[in-house]
Write a structure and sequence with these properties.
By secondary structure, this protein is α+β, with helices and mostly antiparallel strands. The protein contains seven helices and eight strands; from the N terminus they run H-H-E-E-H-E-E-E-E-E-H-H-E-H-H. It binds zinc ion.
Length: 218
């Protein structure tokens, strides 16, 4: 999604990224309400030279680890480029792994990703976002998606992902289109992290749906 009514900054993105990387430690994460999360992104086309791209990706990864999170998109650090990183060691109990399809997703860089559903199957689970700290909500998403992208070396990626890895890729790619998970969430499922930990830690959100009054995909 490209904005037509907000002029983009005339400052080169490479200067903006150099300035971000000049600080120590994890990058500051932008919170909901900042237009950079809503404007969409430029496809990556060499705006950062290979050395700067490497350093930017390393900083995204370190920031994702520090948060901690399982994905981070460039707009979440204020950079409107179509780049995201994902990585999920999936340290969850067996029953959660089975119910949610939460299997480990090795670290990878998504450059210019897009996805499309494969099949009609959908699943709904609580999901959170580093740009919406403190809250989670249930989002119904395609169980299986076809991901097309480039990796950080420019090699084409075209593969089908299932379960939690598919969910992470959808969430991060949506960021690059200016979409937050809340746009797709069941509004009545909105729960604080404390409420999720206390009440809704079950492998599926079935009890939450009954108690809070929202629908799940059939
Ligand atoms: Zn997010």
């Amino acid at each position: 999604m490209a904005s037509t009514d907000v002029p983009s900054s005339s400052r080169p993105l490479s200067d903006q990224v150099e300035e971000l990387l000049s600080r120590e430690g994890p990058l500051p994460i932008v919170a909901a309400g900042d237009p950079v999360l809503r404007r969409g992104t430029e496809p990556f086309d060499g705006q950062l030279d290979p050395g700067l791209l490497d350093r930017f990706v390393a900083a995204l990864r370190a920031t994702m680890h520090a948060a901690p999170g399982v994905g981070l998109a460039a707009p979440q650090v204020g950079v409107p480029l179509r780049i995201a990183v994902v990585e999920d060691p999936a340290p969850v109990p067996e029953e959660v792994r089975l119910a949610r399809g939460r299997v480990p997703l090795p670290f990878r860089v998504l450059v210019n990703p897009s996805y499309e559903p494969v099949g009609a199957e959908r699943a709904a689970f609580f999901e959170g976002c580093l740009s919406v700290p403190g809250w989670q909500a249930v989002v119904a998403r395609a169980v299986r998606v076809r991901l097309t992208a480039r990796d950080e070396h420019g090699r084409a990626v075209d593969e089908v992902l299932t379960g939690w890895p598919a969910r992470i890729v959808q969430h991060e790619t949506d960021h690059l289109d200016g979409t937050l998970y809340l746009d797709r969430a069941e509004p009545r499922s909105l729960s604080s992290n404390e409420a999720v930990a206390l009440r809704w830690a079950q492998p599926t959100p079935r009890e939450a749906a009954t108690a809070l009054g929202f629908d799940l995909p059939t």
